[in-house]
Amino acid sequence: MSALLEEYATRRPVYARLLHGDGGPTLAEHVARYGPLPPVARSTAEMLRVIEASGLTGRGGAGFPSAAKLRSVSRGSRAVVVANGVEGEPASAKDEVLMIRNPHLVLDGVEAAAAVVGAGESYVAVAGESHAVVAALEAASMERADRHPVEIVRVPDRFVSGEESALVRWLNDGRAAPTGRRPFERGVHGRPTLVQNVETLAHLALIVRYGAAWFRSAGTADEPGTALATVLGAVRTPGVVELEIGTTLGEAFDRCGGLTERIQAILVGGYFGTWIAPDLEVALSNEALRPRGASPGARTIVAFPRSVCGLAETARVARYMAGESAGQCGPCVFGLAALADALEVAAQCRGSQDDELDRISQLHAQIARRGACAHPDGTLGFVASALDVFSSEVDAHRSGHCTATRHAPVLRT
Amino acid sequence: MDGGSTAVWYLMRSTGVVSVVLLTGVMALGIATTNRWAPPSTPRFVTAALHRSISLLSVVFVGIHVVTAVVDPYAAVGVVAVVVPFVGAGNPLWVGLGAVSLDLIAALIVSSLLRRYVGYRAWRAIHWLAYMSWPLALAHGLGMGTDASSLWFPLIAIACIATVSAALAWRLSRRHHGKRLEPHVLRAAL
Amino acid sequence: MSTHLDVDPRLCDAYGYCAELLPEAIALDEWGYPVIDPGPLSDDVLADARRAASACPMLALRLRKG
Fold first, then answer.
1. Mutate to test the interface with A, among C29, C56, C58 (most CBs of A within 10 A)
2. Which CATH number does the domain housing residue A136 bear?
3. What is the reported pLDDT for B148?
4. Rounded to whole angstroms, what are the CA distances from B77 to B21, B73, B74, B140, B147?
5. Averaged pLDDT for residues A192-202
6. Which of these three, A247, A282, A305, is where a domain ends?
7. Which chain B residues touch A154 with a CB distance below 8 Å?
8. What is the pLDDT of residues A61-116, one digit of tens each?
């Protein structure tokens, strides 16, 4: 039994499946810790059953059942695997940390997925400016030169580059703009393409070693396993932590040194996510968040402090999101810019803001579901939940004053 | 060139002139369409529809012009020279320019009628190339109509050039600003 | 079997002909982009709908069965 497996048999809570140590293990160290990657190719049907039994879902934000994705791609021929480590969201760092600290596990996952879907061609896509990530992956890749070939591809470090269809399009014609088409039938070079988040692949690499029951030994029955979360804001040591699904937000903050001040809201799911009231007992799971109109997304969690203006931060992120539009669809390009304009006015303490709020509702109706990808709708959800959660701040600004006591930006752009 | 005074010859010359004028109209309307212009109280699709109708009308006149040029005994334009430029006996250069213009117009009309099958990108590339058909037609007309005593065609040509130049100048001064693919999604952004 | 209108927002360049030709089902937002009624097209506007789809300079408007 490997050291890790023994660790799980005896240790609770489980939070070191993916993240442990300081990173950069050699292939030998990696194999010593986890055991070798078992050969998958001979029994792909069996592997699909195991992955399905494990209940693994995508860790890139959409939470799609991984077995279903693998199965639909494996039906085609000459498939391609694309490991998505782009992490276009500026506030999220979990994929970057994973690739730096455990590159061999990610590459194991690519290899296993490629065997399951019958892919001869695999890529790992990363943001071009993440030199540490590229270095870690290249170093690991060199140690595995005799195994399944994986090409490391750099993409522009922008929000839209990590979108599944945009990433496939980048590989095809050098334009990272969403196509609105799912790549599992026709993707890279027109072939069935599996696009999977790097964290999902890392979990996959462990499931093929230890099985479905092991994976399910953490997390909840409906949402098994662990997940990486980026925790930011008013916590002592912001950063990336590995959590059992079902961990509460309060526990997540404690893992990061605890809260440093009173918080007025929690952002769950990054800039496509939802602002919720600061309830520390809420679990970071679909089950707990859905009744609050939220979902974990890619698990970027921000503990938003009382001392900073929520309206100003929302306006700042809305402006950023408007600038990150790929520029393909009119309602996104012009709508999000107008939305940012209106929010900026509302964020100033200019007295009556009724016009701006009406304007924002009107814009919401004109933008919703009129783009080719999730960018405009994700931004709308972020803004709408902000106006709801920060409604008292909105009222304060209407009366001409702001409750903030400091103006340091909390949300990274 | 001594053309004689047959009806066919006059038909060839007159349809040639009308074609150039119509093509000028097509160019101007095409520019107006791109700039999203329409006369006051007129829907914008009318500009595009007019552009399309006049281009089809010009095909009729160009067609008659070409047929009469081949049929007329004094014009001495072979059938081949009509579509393959710079072959044939009399006036190979000026006839050739007309042939190129005709080829471009033909490609334009065919690709536009079959636009759904050709696809937007191919159609647009052909459309851009076909902009050349207008100055080529003008040059062809000026080169062919070498009658020292008559100035009327050069005057018509000047009016045509003035029209398209004015349309182009207007277009450049009032560019329609739509959406554009952001530079940050392109390879250059790496 | 009903017919619906779809617009591909990536292709659409706000020419607005569709809204002029089929005001019963298409309106323009403040930036000139079409807002399309998602419901099925009634029989008396089907011909106009086809005309609107072929008038689109970008071939962004399509008719869909079902």
1. C29
2. 3.40.50.11540
3. 44
4. 22, 9, 9, 13, 19
5. 97
6. A305
7. 190
8. 999 999 999 999 998 889 999 999 999 999 999 999 999 999 999 999 999 999 99
Domains of chain C: 3-65 (3.30.70.20)
Find which of C7, C10, C20 to mutate to test the B interface (most B CBs within 10 Å of its CB): C20
A314 and A299 part of one domain: no
Q: Using a CB-CB distance cutoff of 8 angstroms, which residues of chain A are in contact with residue C10? A: 177, 179-180, 328-329, 372
Q: What is the DSSP letter of A169?
A: H
**Quick check: C17 and B178 CB within 8 A?**
no
DSSP B99-152: HHHHHHHHHHHHHHHTHHHH-HHHHHHHHHHHTTHHHHHHHHHHHH---TT--H
CB < 8 Å to C20, chain B: 43-45
Q: Is B37 helix (H, G, I), strand (E, B) or coil?
A: coil
Q: Which of A295, A110, A302 is nearest to A199 (CA)?
A: A110
Residue A324 and residue B185: Cβ atoms within 8 Å? no
Rounded distance between C-alpha atoms, residue B16 and residue B140, angstroms: 10
Q: Is A355 a member of any domain?
A: yes
A376 upstream amide cis, omega within 30 of 0? no
Q: Which tokens is B90 given? A: 């009399």
- Do the Cβ atoms of A158 and B178 come within 8 Å? no
CATH of the domain at A249: 3.10.20.600
Q: Are residues A180 and A239 in the same domain?
A: no
Give phi and psi for B175, each to the nearest 5: -60, 135
Interface of chain A toward chain C, CB-CB under 8 angstroms: 177, 179-180, 328-332, 334-335, 366, 370-372
Residues of C in contact with A370 (CB under 8 A): 9, 29, 33, 35
ipTM of the complex, rounded to two decimals: 0.95
Over 80: is that where the pLDDT of A272 sits? yes
Give mean pLDDT, residues A235-256: 95
pLDDT of residue A11: 47
Q: Based on the fold, state whether residues A205 and A330 are members of the same structural domain.
A: no
Is there a contact between A268 and A320 (Cβ–Cβ < 8 Å)? no
For the domain that residue A364 is a member of, what is the CATH number? 1.20.1440.230
Of C10, C12, C35, the CB nearest to A180: C10
What is the C-alpha separation between A301 and A294, in angstroms, rounded? 12
Q: Tell if the CB–CB gap between B186 and A175 is shorter than 8 Å.
A: yes
Domain membership flag for residue A411: no
**Would the CB atoms of B182 and A325 count as touching at under 8 Å?**
yes
Q: Which of A167, A191, A216 lies at the terminal end of a domain, its last residue? A: A216
| Yes or no, beta carbons of B184 and A156 under 8 Å apart | yes
Under an 8 A CB cutoff, do C17 and B36 touch?
no
pLDDT tens, per residue, chain B with 190 residues: 454 558 888 898 899 999 999 999 999 999 999 999 999 999 999 999 999 999 999 999 999 999 998 888 777 677 777 778 777 666 678 888 889 999 999 999 899 889 888 888 899 999 999 889 999 999 998 888 765 457 788 889 999 999 999 999 999 998 878 899 999 888 877 7
Laid out side by side, the sheet with A150-155 consists of A150-155, A119-127, A79-85, A193-197
Mean pLDDT of chain A: 92
pLDDT of residue A5: 52
Write the pLDDT tens digit of every residue in C11-47: 999 999 999 999 999 999 999 999 999 999 999 999 9
